[in-house]
User: Fold LacI family transcriptional regulator from Streptomyces sp. SID7499.
Amino acid sequence: MATHGARGRSGGRPTLEEVAARAGVGRGTVSRVINGSPRVSDATRAAVEAAVAELGYVPNTAARALAANRTDAIALVVPEPETRFFAEPYFSDMLKGVGSALSDTEMQLLLIFAGSDRERARLAQYLAAHRVDGVLLVSVHADDPLPDLLAQLEIPAVISGPRSSAETLPSVDSDNYGGARQAVEHLLSRGRSRVAHITGRLDVYGAQRRVDGYREAMSDAGLGVDEGLIEAGDFTEEGGHRAMAVLLERHPDIDAVFAASDVTAAGARRALRDAGRRIPEDVALVGYDDSAIARHMEPPLTSVRQPIEEMGRRMIDLLLTEVADRRPLASRGLERRQMVLATELVSRSSS
Amino acid sequence: MATHGARGRSGGRPTLEEVAARAGVGRGTVSRVINGSPRVSDATRAAVEAAVAELGYVPNTAARALAANRTDAIALVVPEPETRFFAEPYFSDMLKGVGSALSDTEMQLLLIFAGSDRERARLAQYLAAHRVDGVLLVSVHADDPLPDLLAQLEIPAVISGPRSSAETLPSVDSDNYGGARQAVEHLLSRGRSRVAHITGRLDVYGAQRRVDGYREAMSDAGLGVDEGLIEAGDFTEEGGHRAMAVLLERHPDIDAVFAASDVTAAGARRALRDAGRRIPEDVALVGYDDSAIARHMEPPLTSVRQPIEEMGRRMIDLLLTEVADRRPLASRGLERRQMVLATELVSRSSS
DNA sequence: AGGTAGTGTGGGAGCGCTCCCACCAGTGAT
DNA sequence: ATCACTGGTGGGAGCGCTCCCACACTACCT
Assistant:
């Protein structure tokens, strides 16, 4: 059969052609059965399936990719060093959700780190070669060139956490605004009124939305918005510590703090302790993320939980749709697909 | 050019043929340049490279895979649930090493979890489709059927931690025997003589080698081997706690313990505290792995460090060799490639 | 009777590479 | 002058699929 000698290949996997011969049908028909086309009679389908089973036929993905111009693979791109990936539960939860959504698909998931310049160059090369049908982008900064590259290469992509209110890419996010409101309203319902807010990095859209939520919750409660109660952090512990110190100096009568992340809250807690404030007696504290830190803090931290696993699943849904009906770019963007998931307040003893 | 209509494909990536035309050479010559064949004159090579640059040519991997019957991808298979993968630093270190060794290669790394039965079935399907050129197997239990499946499919594989002294697959491991000796000799040099050993899971070959190392170090020191000083653990904290309690009951005069892992040592430490023993005054303690646990224990734990990142790099080296000179199975196995890396004792205040 | 739609089905053409054979200089030995 | 070679090169054939056109065959109208 191999007319030009034994080139590689020892066992010799069966091909479509062989299955077709075995089943007594044509090549096209076998292809139709394999790909689940409805235009095949039941009898023929059964015959083909039997032949597939007998021969142990497994489609050759390379041939399929070449002929159909698709790869059946998508990439989860993490624009961070691996270290952060392993350190933050955000990523492993995301991965879990993505994996579960993909498990009843033929799609293969590739995990790609693009933290260093070198890794980014490799990724660009990889994408240029169109080795994936779509890309999942997590944790993207406002000025990242990756989304543009993807658009230029016409590779479908979904982003977790839009870069702005005018995000053009389909996105899945948790309700940062609503989550912030939950946090503040919870503190108010506990009888607090001098509620401060330590923000996240303000070049991250989600952090801004949390500020918005804080502002409107305060305002709706008739307390007005005292800009002096807002201090910028950067999602780090050190930033939280610094901001808290500033706030205490400015407003010694603060009786509650909403921090934009659990790590930030940990920093704030340290500053509060330094200043001799008791939690929650003197100052109630609420974080964001409901990470392991929240559970293990002393006292355990009330925090706003994001459904990260669910977000991963939704991102896959969006991406697969995008890949499936890959249409001319012109018609995209009109029907923006931005998905927002609800958050949940997990109440513990810090508030 | 596309004679049968615009099938997908909007931009139209340039092909080998187009590059050849541009450079005024034949298809074969361009292929030779792309693949770095030496049989091309310098002038021709330059012309082709210029054409490649001008056109922004990127090889089509699917076509290459089909024609050459290779995928340029290898899989790192983790036969554990994702949770363990993220929890144990072993895996992230391994991944780091593997990634760095691969970074100056064309090879793509796939991370595949095979913890559940479902995932394993998917993996089997994946391997049957020959979607990777080779497989890296980490953390394989003695009775895992995966190695046999790989052998049957004739897919090159490298294993981390041989399953027995008769391992047929190429493997990379740290020197468990030597590491155990280092630990025991260290304790003896500190003036201890009643040294106990809490083992790992004994169906893991590496754990057995550690016992061997312990035995021979004791015996070489002229202390003889008291089997009563050896108690089986299972790499878990609970197992370590239980074993330590048993040992203390049996030999209240123990003055040192070598635990087969840091986690085990943490369990042992708890049992020692329960029994009112001070570390290291009454009992010196040494662990294995030099994980984060060791650094954060109270007191900091002396531990045997394995060069995990280096192991990852070596595994890649072995695998790439294996993939490159993929020869008839018959000649394999004769020249077994088992690699063993040295360990290092990291001394801290627990001993 | 002759249309007019469907359903199934076979198989040609083509996806963009790699492999390998043929061939064409040159160069030196015979 | 003839016969090896040897470094370079062109291009046919083929990898195993998917796509789509063509061609049955049925129905069910006019």
Remarks:
- Residues 73-173+310-340 of chain A form a domain with the Rossmann fold fold (CATH 3.40.50.2300).
- Residues 308-324 of chain A form the longest helix (17 residues).
- DSSP finds 14 helices and twelve strands in chain A.
- The first strand of chain A starts at residue 73 and ends at 78.
